[in-house]
From TrEMBL:
It comes from the Bacteria. This is Uncharacterized protein. It comes from Vreelandella aquamarina.
Length: 521
């Protein structure tokens, strides 16, 4: 084993404590690696897609070493947790480094002593796992036969579609792909041969850091991918007849038995269906939840328990049928959704099928902090008003991606009634919406929230008045928002503080924590 590679593996064996972790200085030279880090920092999606288009025409994946002006080639890759790790060597087996990918083309570049990170990186998806890289079998390393392909695989569907697949779909001459544990891939995709050992995520910039409302390029990439997924799914032929075909109203209702759930979802679904029944003879309800990898089915006890409660609730309503889609794959779900009139779903990954792929009318709900797909939607896509949303915080559940919430089901029904009026020209009588906090429990929670706000923010005036720098003021305000449970706002403020004081240890540490929490959808 070459000495340099031995040193790198020894450092990896010791884990993150073996390395100094610094931001990569993309201004120190004009190498291709520096240009990638620069484009990532500037969110230059067009430049990064152009990079991939050119690389896709090459047999090998080669980049300049992050510290030295030496060309290196990808010789082996492996995945662990949510990240992909690519070992790079020069033609003599020296100058080793590891390219770590999570949401970006390069999230981190790992050398023997230093780990270089990009500005936006979520360190916790990578650093705790690098010790596993020391267990590689060096006999698997190839140089002369290290043809590279792409891997489309992520444990979380949002990142699969919007960090990986959308960029892969933008490549005209596609490389062969590894489809192991993939939520979706095209039937005409070139499958990697057995024995191929180098695969890369086709990432550019993590979608959590982009906004298609503000970028026509991002919008174009998202919509092209979504249309491709929809058309591909329609190629799947159903053997059995559509069970909803003879119904007057077909509803898609998304549920979750885990994080970030609408706490009234069972009563809400049953009562919404019951309230629509006077206007429709037959109602069919698809209940959606956890999704399986392509071509498989899975069980999810929590989501299925929610479905069983809903099924029992609607069983007593004449002319209503419920069917679970929990554990189906995206192709099957898209086919079912094609016959849906409208949806009610959370505004995270649970709305991807009806909102983004099939473009159905509907109602989006979420806690007050999280809205995964900001965009300008048609009038028949409604979003619940934050006036009627009450977030439920606790010590273990204060991050936006996890916070569950109360919403009066009558408010959701009234928005759905507006949708029905637009798509079916049927006037549905709206219901009176009870005020949040009308019961003792909600009053107690609101009082607790008020006390929390007073406790976390009451010292700001004192801090601002004691001669702090702008970076320190931003830092303290961010810490107050963190304590109040609003990590998204805390992260945005701490990013501003970091720009003013890039070497502040507290600022850097807290910013890494916030990014890990926010980006872990």
């Amino acid at each position: 084993m070459p000495g340099e590679l031995s040193v790198l593996l020894k450092s990896l064996r010791g884990g993150e404590d073996s390395f100094e972790v610094v931001e990569y200085d993309d201004k120190k030279n004009s190498s291709d690696t520096s240009k990638i880090f620069e484009m990532q920092r500037k969110k230059d999606v067009t430049g990064l897609v152009d990079f991939w288009r050119k690389k896709s025409e090459e047999k090998f994946f080669e980049l300049t070493h992050p510290e030295r002006n030496v060309k290196t080639r990808a010789v082996y890759s492996l995945q662990h947790f949510m990240s992909n790790y690519v070992f790079m060597l020069d033609r003599y087996g020296g100058n080793p480094w590891v390219m770590a990918q999570s949401s970006f083309l390069i999230d981190m570049a790992i050398t023997d002593k230093v780990i270089y990170k990009n500005y936006f990186v979520d360190e916790r998806t990578i650093l705790p796992h690098i010790c596993k890289l020391s267990e590689v079998n060096l006999d698997d390393f190839e140089y002369d036969f290290a043809d590279f392909g792409f891997v489309l695989s992520n444990a979380r569907p949002y990142h699969h579609f919007y960090d990986q697949l959308k960029f892969f779909c933008a490549l005209p001459d596609r490389k062969c792909i590894s489809t192991k544990s993939s939520f979706f891939f095209g039937s005409d995709a070139c499958r990697a041969k057995n024995g191929q050992k180098v695969f890369l995520f086709p990432n550019a910039v993590g979608n959590s850091h982009l906004n298609q409302k503000e970028s026509s390029v991002v919008r174009s990439l998202n919509e092209a991918m979504e249309l491709s997924v929809y058309r591909e799914a329609l190629n799947l032929r159903k053997v059995e007849a559509d069970p909803s075909s003879e119904c007057d109203l077909v509803l898609w209702f998304g549920v979750t038995g885990q994080k970030r759930s609408w706490l009234e979802q069972v009563d809400g679904c049953v009562n919404i269906v019951k309230s629509f029944k006077p206007y429709f003879d037959k109602i069919f309800v698809y209940v959606d939840g956890m999704t399986a990898m392509q071509g498989s089915r899975i069980n999810n006890k929590e989501d299925e328990a929610v479905f069983r409660e809903i099924d029992r609730g609607v069983a007593g309503i004449g002319g209503v049928t419920a069917q679970s889609l929990i554990g189906w794959d995206y192709r099957e779900k898209i086919l079912c959704c094609n016959s849906v009139d409208f949806f009610i779903a959370n505004a995270g990954s649970g709305c991807m099928v009806p909102l983004r792929f099939v473009k159905k009318p509907g109602v989006l709900h979420s806690n007050t902090k999280l809205f995964t797909f900001p965009d300008e939607y048609p009038s028949y896509v409604k979003r619940v008003s934050n006036y009627y949303v009450e977030d439920v915080f606790n010590g273990k559940n204060s991050v936006a991606m996890h916070v569950s919430y109360h919403i009066p089901w009558q408010h959701v029904f009234n928005l759905a009634a507006d949708v029905v009026r637009e798509i079916k020209n049927i006037e549905v009588k709206k219901l009176e919406v009870p005020k949040l906090g009308d019961d003792e429990i909600h009053n107690s929670e609101k009082l607790k929230d008020k006390e929390e706000v007073e406790r976390h923010f009451s010292n700001l005036a004192e801090n601002v008045g004691r001669g702090l720098s702008s970076a320190e003021i931003l830092r303290d305000v961010a810490l107050s928002f963190e304590k109040s449970g609003d990590v998204h706002t805390a992260m945005k403020l701490m990013e501003k503080a970091h720009l003013l004081r890039p070497n502040g240890p507290v600022i850097k540490r807290k910013l890494d924590e916030y990014r890990a929490l926010v980006n872990g959808k």
